[in-house]
Amino acid sequence: MALTAPSPGEPHGAALERKGDELRTMAAAMATKADLLVLTTTIQDALRAEMAGIRAEVTAQTGRIQELERSQEAHTMRHQATDTALAHQGELLLHMRMSVEDLDNRGRRCNVRVRGVPALQERNIPYRWSFPFALLARNQNGWVSVRWPEEILRFLEELDLPPISIQDWVLGPLRPLQQRAPQRRGDNPLRGPAPRRRNNSEAPE
Which of 18, 28, 80, 125 makes an SS bond possible with 120, Cβ 3.0 to 4.6 Å? Predict the structure, then answer.
């Protein structure tokens, strides 16, 4: 609210009185200390409500993050347990493979006759055969062995031998065991099954 300018011909005293009335009206329209206190309280209450909502959202997000961390930790532990179990299964499979090949070699070792390894004999490298079927050779660092096809390259490198290629080293599937028919008591494998006894109630043929 602005003060009005004095009109032409208006007495000076009347103009001053009118301006005083306008100033009092403006002062009465201004906010008092109580009004400012009420306004400040209202603003503070609104801010508290907003902060409470923000705190609730932050608390909820914190709970979700903690739940995700626990879930991730559980998944990590299960993953580690699975890796450990797979590694153990791999070791068991390797052991079973070696055992099967050992049994297979036990049945075939009488048919194998090794006369020597020319590459080792030419270089005077001491070697020997290991049971059931493995080649051991000695270098400056000790004994080097080869038993699987994937060990040939390392075996040759440690003995400073040229690389070779083995064409017919094939690890085929195991042959299934033949199922034998159950043998009855009294059967002779050379003469065939024993004759079936005749019951007294049966009539002779």
Answer: 125
